[in-house]
Write a structure and sequence with these properties.
about 550 residues, Rossmann fold, 3 domains, six-stranded parallel sheet
Length: about 550
């Protein structure tokens, strides 16, 4: 056997170890030094391999697949700067607790640091953004299959341990890289770990007791649910038991049932927020998205955080207690310790204000015929079918959903809110679509353009997703930030464009529909769903009018709250 045969057999055993633990999908970009990895992934019957032109897109595609399924996904590339292009997706995976297995091809040790072509220092390249790094040995004739298979099993176990995270295996190979005509080894895909990883440990009894003490006899409390990887229905049950308002962000999995329908309007109203300062905020999951929510949580008399992923979800450093524990289990334990309470003026005040604010906002936006981004977010969340997943772009889409989305059951909202970048979002959407769940996305025009290469590469390759793109001619989020007063606002921040999104979508092989009336959105979603494939629904938005509409909605809500 030549070096190529040895390397291929080693990689086959490594991949077989992944498959034995439930790994089913891999994403890879073309390259020479990664040939043994690519062949093993392509030929293994347990792996669904997706090939992408560039590594950044490949990384975010793998991220989307792992985010949607909770199962570790493999992303692999060749040596050199290819490895650096995976970094943004690895950062997002690390900060949003997504399990990735990163495989980078490399030169053997004797070719490092001597000027060999396409060689960079790949050792611990991703630093603290991966849970574990291994510079594997060059495959040799003396290696046993069990050693490499165990390395694969260990990588999956590490990616899932405690909380999901990326792991990095650097894999050096000597030439020749291509195996001979040896038969492909047989696979041994007996399952060794559950696909979702080990069950989270129950919260320590003493920690539950301490949290329960914060809740005891408190009437003016609020439960705030930030981003959570897994839905926890017991949180809503706890809010009902305590008679506390439940504020749930769209990607928390708790925006249903009794959750507040207009919380962002209430919290951004200074008079209401001042009059409803809570004694205790019990926060589950990630830190709040909006500035109003961040301020509200930070101004509570006492803040207690249940942080299942150890996100350190307290940017204001206001929390008196932060417990790393499974959210659903903790909520269920607290229900056992807290007796069911009777309704109070506090919960009635929140409920009445929530109803008035929602009605005022809906009546106003329903009267406008032109697309307004808040209404688009609301109507998209209302219109997508039960059993779907909705991916929300960073910047304005996730904030508009937070403000305007009505509570509903039967859909799941996902977002790249670890590092909150807009990069690689089209790839994330398409990766998530491989889960088999009907996939929709709400994103801005710049987010689409930032990752247009993924649309060009993937639109004709059998993926199925509907992308609702808000085309307001640039990055209008900066019109809501302090940069709005700078003379360089347009040139440096909103970066207006004159790109024909329809022409780009069609040239990429994607379907395209342009919507210019708000009432057309539900039917456009339905038509795009029936058309199948990748379909771009472009929603034309007047940026200046949109800015005024936001102010008008907040003024209308303030009037009814006054």
């Amino acid at each position: 056997m030549n070096e190529g045969d040895v390397a291929f057999r080693a990689m086959w055993s490594l991949v077989d170890g992944f498959a034995s633990c439930g790994v089913r999908l891999a994403s890879i970009s073309p390259g020479s030094r990664s040939t043994p990895i690519a062949l093993a992934l392509a030929r293994h019957p347990g792996i669904d391999l997706h090939v992408h032109l560039d590594e950044r897109a490949s990384g975010f595609f793998a991220l989307g697949a792992a985010k949607a399924t909770g199962t570790p996904t493999v992303v692999a590339c060749t040596s050199g700067t290819a490895t650096a292009n995976l970094f943004p997706a690895i950062v997002e995976a690390s900060m949003s607790r997504v399990p990735l297995i990163v495989l980078t091809g490399d030169r053997p040790p004797e070719l490092r640091g001597v000027g060999a072509n396409q060689t960079i220092d790949q050792l611990e390249l991703y630093g603290r953004y991966v849970r574990a790094f291994e510079d594997a040995p060059v495959p040799s004739h003396g290696d046993g299959e069990a050693e490499w298979r165990e390395r694969g099993v260990r990588a999956v176990a590490t990616a899932l341990a405690r909380r999901p995270s990326p792991v990095h295996l650097n894999l050096p190979f000597r030439e020749p890289l291509v195996p001979g005509e040896l038969p492909t080894p047989g696979s041994r895909i007996e399952r060794q770990l559950p696909p979702s990883g080990p069950l989270p440990p129950p919260p320590p009894a003493d920690a539950v007791d301490v949290v329960a003490e914060y809740l005891r006899d408190v009437r003016r409390g609020v439960i705030y649910v930030g981003g959570l990887r897994e839905e926890a229905s017991s949180i809503a049950a706890l809010a009902r038991s305590l008679r506390w308002p439940l504020i749930a962000e769209p990607h928390s999995g708790a925006r249903s049932g009794d959750a507040s329908s207009a919380a962002q309007f209430l919290l951004s109203n200074e008079a209401f927020a001042a009059a409803h300062r809570p004694q205790v905020v019990l926060q589950f999951g990630a830190a709040p998205t909006s500035r109003a929510s961040l301020s509200f949580v930070a101004n509570a008399e006492h803040l207690v955080i249940i942080d299942p992923d150890d996100l350190v979800a307290d940017p204001a450093r206001h929390a008196e207690l932060s417990v790393v524990a499974d959210a659903g289990t903790m909520a269920a334990e607290l229900i056992e310790r807290e007796p069911h309470r009777e309704p109070t003026d506090w919960i009635r005040s929140w409920g009445e204000a929530d109803e008035r604010a929602r009605r005022a906002a809906d009546e106003l936006v329903d009267a406008w015929d032109e697309p307004f981004e808040g209404r688009v977010a609301r109507d998209v969340a209302d219109a997508i079918p039960e059993g779907s997943q909705l991916l929300a772009g960073s910047s304005m889409p996730i904030r508009d959903l937070d403000a305007y989305m009505r509570p509903r059951r039967g859909i799941r909202v996902l977002a790249n809110r670890g590092a909150s970048g807009i990069d690689g979002f089209v790839s994330t959407i398409l990766g998530a679509s491989t889960s088999g769940v009907p996939t929709f996305a709400l994103l801005g025009d710049l987010t689409l353009l930032h990752d247009i290469g993924s649309l060009a590469w993937c639109a004709r390759r059998g993926y199925d997703a509907v992308l609702l793109v808000l085309n307001n001619g640039g990055g209008t989020i900066f019109s809501f930030l302090p940069q709005r007063d700078l003379p360089e606002l347009e040139r440096l921040f909103t970066t207006p464009h004159a790109v024909d999104i329809g022409a780009i979508a069609r040239s990429c092989g994607a379907g395209h529909t342009r919507v210019e009336r708000a009432k057309e959105i539900p039917s456009a979603i339905l038509d795009a769903t029936r058309a199948r494939g990748v379909h771009v629904v472009e929603v034309a938005v007047d940026a200046e009018l949109n800015l005024r509409r936001h102010a008008e909605v907040h003024a209308a809500v303030s009037a009814v709250l006054a």
